[in-house]
Amino acid sequence: MKEIAGYYDGNTVQLLEPAPKINQKVIVTFTDDEEIFDDLPIGILSKYGDPEKRLLEEGAFERAMAEKHGNG
User: Fold this and answer.
1) Which residue among 4, 22, 31, 40 is least crowded, i.e. fewest CB within 10 A of its CB?
2) Across-strand partners of 8?
3) What Rg, from alpha-carbon coordinates, does the chain have?
4) Measured between alpha carbons, how far is 40 from 4 in angstroms, rounded to an integer?
5) What b/e sequence results for 39-71 when a residue is b if at least 16 CB atoms lie within 10 Å of its CB, and e otherwise?
């Protein structure tokens, strides 16, 4: 048995890692535990994501607006 995390948006399931390319039965378990997804990039462009850049992006919009418009 293999466990693979993913997201379900109400219509489709998006897996966060590759699944075996064979026909097989699966069990879907819904979890409320968001912590397991905190550091995982999602979406079609996730393979291009760089976890190191997330630290630079955090608060970037606020800093840009403060620089452009001043602090108040």
Assistant:
1) 22
2) 13
3) 18
4) 13
5) eeeeeeeeeeeeeeeeeeeeeeeeeeeeeeeee
Per-residue pLDDT tens digits for 45-60: 777 777 777 778 888 8
Structure-model confidence comparison of residues 33 and 57, the more confident one = 57
Of 5, 2, 3, 1, which Cα lies nearest the Cα of 36? 5
Mean pLDDT of the chain: 78
How many CB atoms within 10 Å of residue 19?
Answer: 11
Which residue in 39, 47, 34, 25 sits closest to 7, CA to CA?
34
